[in-house]
Recover the amino acids of this structure.
């Protein structure tokens, strides 16, 4: 009981001195935890590939409508005819999203795949990631990266299909609030909040089927080997 009181007092003191450092620490821990839980629930470690973890059976991707970074409607048709790597994040991400998108951009360059491989970045922060901001963000990393956005309800449904868990955290009145996926951010929170999201990169085959994923940490070399094998190169 004394330990719990001491921890509670310590957290209260940290929040009063530097609330955003506490929130960021919680967000990082939550993101790592989401990745571990997802791996235990959906994927098998046994695979002939170097880093990719494949589903037992492909899952057809159907029945969604989002908006791409050009402001155009996007459906499951954007995944047909080529391999796709799908990553969930947000443009205000301070570290993990930029690092992963740099890796994926390097992969595109090393593949030299043209239209055979695309990267899809899905923003799970619709309140802050408008169409123009998303377009500028993905273009900064690589011209072949496609940005997708939508309403909170649409994004939650799309992420749930892949098993990509996420939520948002904010400090309001000295308390940490957790806003689940699919729920609009409370107006009183403003734009000062953190997004906690899955760190997996999901694979969709040219038939538009979700077939597996890469989980961090992984290298560009390992992803290159696996994608070339899957693409029959």
């Amino acid at each position: 009981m004394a330990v719990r009181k001491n921890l509670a007092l310590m957290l209260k003191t940290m929040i009063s001195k530097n609330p955003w450092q506490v929130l960021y620490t919680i967000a990082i821990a939550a993101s790592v935890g989401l990745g571990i839980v997802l791996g235990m629930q959906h994927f098998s470690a046994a695979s002939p590939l170097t880093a990719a973890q494949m589903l037992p059976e492909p899952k057809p991707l159907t029945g969604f409508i989002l908006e791409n970074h050009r402001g155009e409607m996007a459906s499951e048709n954007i995944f047909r005819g080529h391999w796709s790597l799908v990553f969930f994040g947000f443009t205000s991400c301070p570290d993990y999203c930029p690092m992963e998108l740099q890796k994926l951009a390097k992969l595109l360059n090393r593949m030299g795949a043209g239209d055979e491989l695309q990267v899809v970045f899905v923003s799970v922060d619709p309140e802050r990631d408008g169409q123009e901001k998303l377009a500028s963000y993905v273009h900064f990393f690589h011209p072949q990266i496609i940005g997708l956005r939508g309403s909170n309800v649409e994004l939650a449904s799309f992420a749930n299909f892949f098993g990509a868990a996420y939520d948002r955290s904010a400090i309001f009145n000295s308390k940490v609030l957790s806003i689940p996926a699919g729920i609009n951010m409370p107006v009183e929170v403003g734009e000062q909040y953190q997004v906690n999201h899955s760190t997996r990169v999901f694979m969709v085959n040219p038939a538009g089927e979700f077939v597996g994923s890469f989980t961090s940490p992984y290298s560009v070399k390992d992803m290159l080997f696996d994608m070339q094998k899957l693409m029959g190169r």
Remarks:
- Residues 2-230 form a domain with the Glutaredoxin fold (CATH 3.40.30.10).
